[in-house]
Amino acid sequence: MTARSTPTGAQADAEDLDVEEVLALVNDRRDTGRTRDTGRARDTGRTSDRASGEQVPQPPGPAQSAASLKSDAHHRATPWPQARDIAARAARAARSGTPAGRRAPAPVPLDAALGLTLAAPLTALTDLPSFDTSAMDGWAVAGPGPWDVRDEGVLAGHAEPQPLSDGEAVRIATGARIPPDTTAVLRSEHGRTDTQGRLHALRETKHGQDIRPRGQECRNGDQLLPVGTLVTPAVLGLAAAAGYDTLTVVPRPRAEVLVLGDELLTEGLPREGLIRDALGPMLPPWLRALGAEVIAVRRLGDDAEALRKAITASDADLVVTTGGTAAGPVDHVHPTLQRIGAELLVNGVKVRPGHPMLLARIKENQHLVGLPGNPLAAVSGLLTLAEPLLRTLAAHPAPEPYVLPLRDEVHGHPYDTRLIPVVLRGDSAVPLHYNGPAMLRGIAAADALAVVPPGGARAGQELELHDLPWASAGIGVCFT
Ligand SMILES: Nc1nc2c(c(=O)[nH]1)N[C@H]1C(S)=C(S)[C@@H](COP(=O)(O)OP(=O)(O)OC[C@H]3O[C@@H](n4cnc5c(N)ncnc54)[C@H](O)[C@@H]3O)O[C@H]1N2
Ligand code: MOO
Hints:
This protein is α/β, with parallel strands linked by helices. It folds into 4 domains: 76-98 and 252-394, Molybdenum Cofactor Biosythetic Enzyme, Chain A (3-Layer(aba) Sandwich); 110-126 and 223-250, Molybdopterin biosynthesis moea protein, domain 2, CATH 3.90.105; 133-212, Molybdopterin biosynthesis moeA protein, domain 3 (Beta Complex); 402-467, Beta Barrel (Beta-clip), CATH 2.40.340. The protein has 12 helices and 27 strands. α6 (80-95) runs parallel beside α11 (375-393) and α9 packs across α10. Residues 259, 261, 263-264, 275, 277-279, 322-326, 328, 331, 353, 355-356, 372-375, 377, 437 line the site of ligand LQZAQKY5. One of its GO terms (biological process) is Mo-molybdopterin cofactor biosynthetic process.
């Protein structure tokens, strides 16, 4: 963490903190059972794994080639909660990889730190307040009244005023430095000057009244916030007050989006079998809301060689592809991953929509999430694979799952989890229509996605909900 003053020994140590240690702290805090208070949520304490009736996830097994996994795809598909856990673990593994590949915590200017996680404790670089200061507009007085009032007053931001002598007072503004030997501040509404200009108190003034003593809030070197704290607007304010110009934070993971498909138009009306690209405009801000920095969006058509080149040339932490995940004649994602020797960690997920989604490790510290082309299926892939991966890379704690009863019955898939857009009304979740894989009409009106277990859910049944990043109105909402 850098600041105007030279770092103390404690700060210098803090700068050595690794992202792994930040993650460990964040995870520790998560394990304390802290619950998220949504004001509407009823947390049953169930994890997403238990809520969906799936096995507790195991770490990914040994590397499997894209080819071997492509056969027998449905049986090999990963249960939904386990897929989320594998994505989080993959990010943790990337962070504990070789130091060369790791992105170290870095100092960033305050205005670039919002929504990131502190990688060093916020330690006060000064006493706060840093000098004795007046808490009110009025007079600084010395000894008992009445007092002779000096001609010239003391304003905030001025140099140290002359000491007061017993029986003397000086006009003072809120936030101004207290003159030495002041015994109290008399508020303007509690004092009156007589015709000779002498000041009288209208009520008893206690010793030290309305003086904020130096160090009242903290002493130089006190720890104000621990490693792992999310940088909120309030944290930025505290950091500035405590003397910081930059904060050392876990860097935003870098994401690159590769939009595949020859059928996509970037403007105008759909025509002659061509359709508008819905994912190019949707994914970058969504990924930003999940904490990523989007370094590029490339439209590659259905060109296998262009896809190979783009993946191998990328230096993003996460490459996100759209479309081309199935087994059609121009679905190039699997063959390309196989060709470049990527390791498939998730090859299909038992979730609807979105079951062809995939997660691969391209290099030690680089992953690829393959989103299916159907737009709501792509959203499902974002929530299932990209969200846990990005959140873990950014050292953000996992949001506590919460549950609400469903207002209306929802049909389920016989074996797979379903994700359904819902709006939250009072104490229940109302399922939205237009939730087919190719449709965005439901999700565009939604507050959250409800997790429907295999077999469906009846009206009144409590379902796990995942807020859409903007609906939760949290600090994670960071579209810039
Ligand atoms: N024989 C089978 N065919 C399909 C299966 C299957 O199991 N067996 N699964 C279906 C499911 S489910 C999905 S989802 C899709 C996944 O397909 P891909 O990931 O290969 O995606 P594409 O074929 O490229 O596109 C699917 C669909 O989405 C439209 N699309 C693609 N990109 C965009 C975009 N950027 N904006 C708007 N719409 C987009 C595309 O035009 C297609 O209509 O496979 C099924 N097939
Ligand atoms: O993933 Mo597909 O969109 O389930 O239909």
